[in-house]
Amino acid sequence: MAHAGPTSGAWNETRQDMTGALASALSKRGVLRVAGPEARSFLQGLVTNNVDLATGMTAIYAALLTPQGKFLLDFFIAADPADKDAVLLDCDGARAEALMKRLTMYKLRAKVTIEDLSEKLAVLALWNEDGSPLTEGPGFADPRLPGMGRRAILASGEVGKAISAAKAREAGEDEYHRLRIMHGVGDAAQDFEPDRTFPLEVNIAELNGIDFHKGCFVGQEVTSRTKRRGSVRKRLLPAHVEGDMPPHGTQVKGVAREVGTILSGDAETSRVLALLRLDLIRGSVLEAGYAEIRPEVPSWLHIDLDGSEEEAADGE
């Protein structure tokens, strides 16, 4: 069976001109295919988001946690247009094998097959250079934030054709990572520490990766309790750097003590992502290596820098 990926369909016949759009093939992503009559129900009991919402050209962002509620892996789940019983998982390529092993461990007698298609399928990211939402194009809207544009899973040999059809400028992966750092969006390969990081610390809930109403998932009890108590002590935040760019892993210091760690960075814009202790950074001058850093709170993240969560717009 051919696997054209979620870019197949009528879009190429009705595309709009995407002046100012950029596109980057994300070479470090992998793709797994989970198929079989019980594929969705199997995943539904494991992952943090509602798999039933991954239909047509709509995808979801989700994670797999430990039973203790710590982050293990994250991925996008999209419907496979070649098979109504199958879904495609856009994941960190370096950990695709680990994800496959973890899912296989949970499979037991479920009528499910799990296949690594990373050699056959590629992941393409597309976004508007001016930061505005990209409402049309191949693949699916990035479910995390409108400003992150779109993603497409397609045959490896079709990447160039898709970029041309979208009338987008081909961009390097560094430009894509600049986009996500600008928006304050973490990348698991660089910013999340498996089996130590909690999903709420790296804002997976605010990025539409956790459905607290869908029913059980692995690690749900700890995650829900932390959410109810508002007891998230650390957060992944973007920050402006004044001085020499600190490398990944540099400790951030406040008043004579460590308050966090530098993770992703972009030298061109002097911005980083840092995992910071919220209760220790308010009003402090923060230093990392030979630089001062100034944390910011993205508009989509409803917290104060003292660690308290602001009232959500929906009153929850």
From TrEMBL:
Database matches in Pfam families: Beta-barrel_CAF17_C (PF25455), GCV_T (PF01571)
GO biological process: iron-sulfur cluster assembly
The UniProt record lists the keyword Transit peptide: yes
Start and end residues of each GCVT N-terminal domain: 27-127
Residues covered by the CAF17 C-terminal domain: 233-301
Keyword Transit peptide tagged: yes
Name the record gives this protein: Glycine cleavage T protein (Aminomethyl transferase)
